[in-house]
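Incident log, structure service

09:12 report received: a user says their structure output differs between two submissions of the same chain.
09:20 pulled the input from the user's history:
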Amino acid sequence: MTAMRLNVIDLEKSEYAGGKSSLCPGCGHDQISNVIVQAAWENGIKPEGIAKMSGIGCSSKTPAYFLGKSHGFNTVHGRMPSVTTGANLVNKDLSFIGVSGDGDTASIGIGQFIHAIRKNVDMVYIIENNGVYGLTKGQYSATVEKGSKKKKGAANQQPPIDLCAMAINLGCGFVARSFSGSKKQLTALVKAAMSHRGMAVVDVISPCVTFANNDESYRSYNYVKANDEVLHILDYIPHFPNMEEVDVPEGEYQEIRLFDGSTLRLETVGSDYDSSDSLSALRAVHEAGRANRHVTGLLYYEPDVPTATDVLELTDTPLIALPGDQMRPSRESLERVNAHFRTD
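09:34 re-ran on a clean worker, output below:
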């Protein structure tokens, strides 16, 4: 009889599962859901200690398919960041995972995305990026590359918005790009993002099998596999004893210490790359874009950006747990404040 595998808090992986997916068979989003389950289980996060947030779209349906015992909130189109901001500020002890799409983030929700980065909301923001609006029959989204072509219709003629470049320019402390077909890389990045304190943006290229998985689409499985410029091989080493032995890189590598004491090990592939240099990150993104290639890996990391709760100097105790007499001013203190504004 095979022994049951438990994580560091003695839970089976089934404790992190969700409902059955209703997405198209073969959708890249389902692989991302599987990775989120794996990452949360391996990191030993209690399911009830996670809040999963989403907007509208194929991607935003996916929280139903993972972490069934976690808190969840499905917002209206493009409004996930602001709802997550409010939830995070009143209960910062929860681990927040926001799932959005390229339409939800780069069009109607782009302003909310920008301000969540500015405020450095403590959350993992996963973009399931396929370049099309799947729920409304495959129109191009704002992230798709110029010249990319769906199964039907003319090629896209509009320049794309690169959400990773935008996040780096805005000062986001953790910016990564991966591919739903690269399970090992994506799992390491999501686990590291969960260990980061502050906003962690993970842009995941996720082929739409229904509308844009033909070879003329720059977001198709075959195209991404053939045109993926990998920056480094990643290994995630948790702060607690690992359940599996971590491969030790043979070449040059650097180790990045994360907020909770875990380590992200980056083995350089090809030319040297410095993930702490925002200019190098932007250069890599733009050079790959000009060549119609996809650069993947940890693009940029800066651990010391103050979070929204730091800036607001919130109490160590989450606001939701504070008693009423601490949340409301006393009559005397309110009188003193009001007196300051009175004029004789």
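09:41 both user submissions now match this output. Likely a transient worker issue. Closing.
09:42 reviewer note: The first strand starts at residue 50 and ends at 54. The chain is about 30% helix and 20% strand.
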